[in-house]
């Protein structure tokens, strides 16, 4: 089974801090994604990566950056955390090139609170 | 325009009854896949069922089936014989052709009543 591991289930940080959310997958997937989930808004894509050192902006990239130095690891960075970034963050991965029938595999999520 | 629309923010169903969760989609790509996920209160996203745009038959996985009406661009999830453990958020999602991105709906919160 695919395992996507997010470094923290719960995280509390202060306004202005630099925050790192880490995600690791163990199935050699090319594609990795970061979403934030807010009530009534569903999942919104922040960034995704289809290869090492490659990244693409999603729908809401403002205030975030990402890093993919190794294939298995995809990091989300909040450069200067703000209270409106309090949310649930979900990481996901999929293989590339095996057709569009491959589901995304998700981590357990990180509930981030910015005080 | 929204790629995925889920119009039911919340639904209730009696235990052991069937329930249908609605999903409509918007795409001009002839090749696409439709997915349903379950998210319990603990937060993890669980993949339930997949339907491809070229599939001739509706997908089924145990108590889950997908009512796929291509001309109407709808992909409703049917859960038969509801159980208390089915209480969760349910998300419909779509991927088009070779595009990397998945599009998600806003979700439906299902509550199963004993």
Structure in words:
The complex is a heterodimer of chains A (115) and B (114). Chain A has 115 residues and is mainly β. Chain A contains no helices and eleven strands. In chain A, β4 and β5 (42-51) form a beta hairpin. The termini of chain A are far apart. Chain B has strands at residues 4-5, 10-14, 19-21, 24-25, 32-39, 46-52, 60-61, 64-69, 74-79, 88-96, 102-104, 108-113. The model of chain B has no long low-confidence stretch (mean pLDDT 94).
N- to C-terminal distance of chain B: 38 Å
SSE succession of chain A: EEEEEEEEEEE
Number of strands of chain B: 12
Largest interface: A-B, 28 and 28 residues
**How much is the average pLDDT of chain A?**
93
Strand count, sense and closure of the main sheet of chain B?
Answer: 6 strands, mixed
**Overall helicity of chain A:** under 10%
User: Which structural class is indicated by helix and strand composition of chain B?
Assistant: mainly beta
Class of secondary structure makeup of chain A:
mainly beta
Shape of chain A: globular
Rg on CA atoms of chain B, Å:
14 Å
Main β sheet profile of chain A: 7 strands, mixed
Mean pLDDT of chain B: 94
User: How big a fraction of the residues of chain A is strand?
Assistant: over 45%
The helix/strand order of chain B is EEEEEEEEEEEE
**Low-pLDDT stretches of chain A:** none
Question: How helix-rich are the residues of chain B, as a percent range?
Answer: under 10%
Global Rg of chain A: 13 Å
Q: Oligomeric state of the chains?
A: heterodimer
Distance between the termini of chain A: 37 Å
Percent strand of chain B: over 45%
Short structural summary:
Chain A has 115 residues and is mainly beta. Chain A is globular, with a radius of gyration of 13 Å. Chain A is 0% helix and 56% strand.
List the helices and strands and how they pair.
The complex is a heterodimer of chains A (115) and B (114).
Chain A lengths: L3 E3 L3 E4 L5 E7 L5 E8 L3 E10 L2 E4 L6 E7 L2 E6 L8 E8 L10 E2 L3 E5 L1
Parallel strand pairs in A: 2-11
Antiparallel strand pairs in A: 1-3, 3-8, 4-5, 4-9, 5-6, 7-8, 9-10, 9-11
Chain B lengths: L3 E2 L4 E5 L4 E3 L2 E2 L6 E8 L6 E7 L7 E2 L2 E6 L4 E6 L8 E9 L5 E3 L3 E6 L1
């Amino acid at each position: 089974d695919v395992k996507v591991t997010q470094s923290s289930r719960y995280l509390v940080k202060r306004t202005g801090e630099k925050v790192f959310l880490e995600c690791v997958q163990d199935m050699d997937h090319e594609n990795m994604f970061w979403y934030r989930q807010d009530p009534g808004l569903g999942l919104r894509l922040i960034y995704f990566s289809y290869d090492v050192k490659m990244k693409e902006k999603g729908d809401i990239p403002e205030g975030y950056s990402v890093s993919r130095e190794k294939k298995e690891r995809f990091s989300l960075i909040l450069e200067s955390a703000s209270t409106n970034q309090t949310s649930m963050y979900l990481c996901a991965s999929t293989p590339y090139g095996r057709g569009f029938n491959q589901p995304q595999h998700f981590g357990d999520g990180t509930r981030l609170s910015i005080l | 325009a929204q790629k995925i629309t889920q119009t039911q923010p919340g639904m209730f169903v009696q235990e052991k009854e069937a329930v249908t969760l609605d999903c409509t989609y918007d795409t001009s790509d002839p090749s696409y896949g439709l997915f349903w996920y379950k998210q319990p209160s603990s937060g993890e996203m669980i993949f339930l069922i997949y339907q491809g745009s070229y599939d001739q038959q509706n997908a089924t996985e145990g108590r889950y089936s997908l009512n796929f009406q291509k001309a109407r661009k709808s992909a409703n999830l049917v859960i038969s014989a509801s159980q208390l453990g089915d209480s969760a958020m349910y998300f419909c999602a779509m991927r088009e052709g070779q595009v990397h991105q998945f599009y998600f709906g806003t979700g439906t919160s299902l509550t199963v009543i004993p």
